[in-house]
Amino acid sequence: MRTTIKNGIRFGAIISVVIIFFHLTGFSVVAANMIGGLFGNVDKNTALAQLPTINLAIVISLIGLIAGGSASKNTKTDSWTNAIVSGTVAGAFSGLFVAVFVYLIGIANFLEVDLRSYLPEIGPDNIDYLLFGGKASANFLYLGLLTISGLAGAAFSKGIIRANWRKQVQADSVQSFNAFIQKPGIQKVFNNKIVVYAFLAAAAFLLYFLPTKWGPYWNFIMGTVGIYILLGLGLNIIVGLSGQLVLGYVAFFAIGAYTFGLLTAPEPHAIGMNFWLAIVFAILAAALTGVLLGLPILNLRGDYLAIVTLGFGEIIRILIKSDMLTDFTNGPSGLSDLVQPKWLGKTFNDVNYFHLTVIFVIIAIFIANRLQYSRTGRAWLAISADQTVARATGINTFKYNLLALALGAAFAGLGGALFASRNQFTGPEDHILMVSINVLCLVIVGGMGSLPGVVVGAFVLKGVPELLRDLENYRLLAFGALLVMMMVMRPEGLWPKGRPEMETLYYRKHPKDSPPDGEVQS
Amino acid sequence: MMLEVENLNVYYGAIHALKGISFHLEEGEIVALIGANGAGKSTSLNTISGLLRANPGKIVFEGEDISQTPPQDVVMKGIIQVPEGRKIFARMTVMENLEMGAYTQPDRVKFEENLEAVYFRFPRLKERQKQLGGTLSGGEQQMLAMARGLMGNPRLLLLDEPSMGLAPILVEQIFEIIQSINEQGTSILLVEQNAQMALSIADRGYVLETGKTVLEGSGQELLHNPLVEEAYLGG
Asked: Does B131 touch chain A if contact means CB atoms closer than 8 Å?
């Protein structure tokens, strides 16, 4: 029992710190506003004084539920008493701490000490709100709310965890789903070309018509997601397949964007090349850069390769910006008025751009997929598993590493050119280190080496921040927390790479021997 | 002469690891390189297979100097190394490992023949063909490493410490297999710490010490050589 209570106190302390932090940074008020948005009892013009206090109570109770739930989950023994006690103690203790805290800021408010000089979010209005409208009983409210919600959280989480029905339902549903899928009739439907084509047609239909409906803003966001999918697919070849940690990937993006820009912008060269031709040149230039970078450094692996390529990314950006090359690259002011694609005499608008991006993404996915399961992909797999053994089996590791770098760079070149053309501008500040980091993040978040992972990762990294716009200043805070949570819960990535399903020569010839899907023993 | 190594020198940075090693191997032989840790046994193998560069030194395989040939071309010539420490692809299945072994062999008919031969020799691998390499036992992993080597149609197999870390009964089994591979016409260059076992199956052997060849002779001769007995066979 003592350890149970201790456990509760520990969680209570952690949660109280979280609540106090939310109060101090003003996040609680934002959260209360969001709750209001859900309930419809708040609109954009509601002043703080009119914000219903019930919203704050809901926020606090939700945190309390989490506190109780996690505290009860963390008890070692499997008894109901322990779980309930632990959760309640966690709730009560966090309530106690928070009560003391609000008492203190209440006093400060009463004495008219202006805390805003230290903590800009803690003005008198905010304090009033956090005290549930300045009630003296606010302390007890906190204590009560958190204790009850802690108890409820513990009961709820314990109930769910203990219940065998949950596991049973899960197991049953998975089993019946598998059985359902394996039924010959269903298999026939899945294997039926018409069904597949119908599905593809539906997807194509959606991709074709959605952009005309959801407006330029979402076209822009989704276009960015698409470009990041291209970048992710490229980096995935380098990092995920061939296993080389390259941190300066933005360099290839920059080369693509600038090649496109220099060939099409009226300033400084006025070459005025056609969009489609310039795209090809951008891809080639980026691939060539990949080869040139790779030749001297590909004997490096791991950390060393990461550092060298990191430097390379920065060098490219600084060169573009430098005085020395200003006549050639337009320096810090960048290139503007880049050409936009034309088709049948019509210049592309935002919808066309989105469609173009989708087409490029589909082509890129197709290429990446074919590569992954080709002889080349297998060589990469061997190299990333063990370079020495790969060489001993007769794989030309240098050639394949270089190929990975060149192909990955080519994808980035395409992405860069598309990005520059869509914005009709590209400047050195488009090509900062953060781009490399973002692309690497999306590959990791999605699941290293997995193609669907890249797509999911790009949506999460470039799409979700847009969905979090309601959080205003706290957007990146929440996004960061979300990323951390994702990586804790799914360390392999959101859509991890399955075991490489290589349809081996042997199995192709002897289908009877081949392992059924998912039945490779491990 | 199938393989002739002459005055082989190899440096790791400033360290002079091989100081002019010479040995040779006739077609169909088992030749053992024995010696203590750091004598240069594995370095010799890695240099022959092209993972390391000779500087200077001559490696002649069937009349052709291969001392500057990159590893993938060495493999194509029929010299296949089974690296030390059971280096298999742990995340690939047994079958996929074997397919990696045949990476340089485009001939599919030959692939099937080899696969059958390998499964005949290592029935355990056939049982476990769908299992991930990393989940095999130590002995099975060593067998897989050798089987993977055989999939590449070796004319000369370079075995690096096949007995490392295996139970005595498995060591015997592995050496029997080595002998039978040899009987079917593959020449074998064997590097071993277990001098007793290695010399007992070897046609000829060389004793290496700090990067030099200090003794050579037939397997039986070396086995009964007092110096060898004292230094490597425990008196």
From this structure: yes
Express each pLDDT in A108-163 by its tens digit: 878 877 777 777 777 778 888 888 877 778 888 888 888 888 888 888 877 776 66
B68: contact with A, CB 8 A cutoff = no
Smallest CA–CA distance from A517 into chain B, residue: B130
Amino acid at A206: L
Contact A443, A239 (CB under 8 A): yes
Q: Report d(CA A255, CA A410) in Å as an integer.
A: 10
The pair of structure tokens assigned to A63 is 């945190």
Orientation angle between helical segments A250-264 and A275-297, nearest 10 degrees? 140
* Contact flag B92-A522 (C-beta cutoff 8 Å): no
What is the ipTM score, two decimals?
0.86
Domains and CATH numbers, chain A: 2-162 (no CATH), 196-511 (1.10.3470)
Cβ within 8 Å, pair A378-B103: yes
Phi, psi of B107 (to 5 degrees): -80, 110
Q: Which residues pair with B60 in a beta bridge?
A: B4, B65
Residue B70, chain A, CB below 8 Å: the answer is: yes
* Residue among A277, A257, A261 nearest A269 (CA): A261
Q: How far is CA A212 from CA A203, A217, A219, A354, A357, in A?
A: 15, 11, 9, 10, 15
Residues of A in contact with B103 (CB under 8 A): 375, 378-379, 382, 393-395
How distant is the Cα of A141 from the closest Cα of chain B, in angstroms? 56
Alpha carbon of residue B232 to chain centroid:
20
Q: Which of A379, A502, A513 is closest, CB to CB, to B96? A: A502
Q: Is B174 helix (H, G, I), strand (E, B) or coil?
A: helix
- Tokens describing residue B145: 């490493």
Interatomic CA distance for residues A273 and A260, integer angstroms:
9
Please indicate whether, in this complex, the C-beta atoms of B87 and A515 are within 8 angstroms of each other: no
Rounded CA separation A151/A157 (Å): 10
Could you give the CA distance from residue A291 to residue A294 in angstroms, rounded to a whole number?
Answer: 5
Task: Report the Cα A233 to chain-centroid distance in Å.
Answer: 14
Confirm if A235 and A443 have CB atoms less than 8 A apart.
Answer: yes
**Residues paired with B215 in a beta bridge:** B207
Separation CA B185–CA A494 (nearest Å): 51
Region A414-418: mean pLDDT is 95
pLDDT in tens, A228-239: 999 999 999 999
User: From the CB of residue A517, how many other CB atoms can be counted at a distance below 10 Å?
Assistant: 11
Cα(A500)–Cα(B91) distance, integer angstroms? 9
Say which residues have a Cβ less than 8 Å from residue A243's Cβ, sequence separation at least 6: A380, A383, A384, A385
Angstrom CA distances, A487 to A447, A495, A498, stand at 10, 12, 17
**DSSP character string of B90-132:** TTSBHHHHHHHHTTT---HHHHHHHHHHHHHH-HHHHHTTTSB
- Those residues whose C-beta lies under 8 Å from the C-beta of residue A126, and which sit 6 or more positions away, are A26, A29, A48
User: In this predicted model, what pLDDT tens digit does every residue of A212-266 receive, in sequence order?
Assistant: 888 888 889 999 999 999 999 999 999 989 889 999 999 999 999 999 999 998 8
pLDDT tens digits, one per residue of B13-66: 888 888 989 999 999 999 999 988 888 889 999 999 999 988 888 999 998 999
Q: What is the 3-state secondary structure (H, E, C) of A397-447?
A: HHHHHHHHHHHHHHHHHHHHHHHHHHHCEECHHHHCHHHHHHHHHHHHHHC
Interatomic CA distance for residues A390 and A394, integer angstroms: 7
Using one digit for the tens of pLDDT, what is the confidence trace for A466-501? 877 777 677 777 778 888 888 887 778 888 776 555
Considering only the beta carbons, identify the residue of B91, B99, B148 that sits closest to A385. Answer: B91
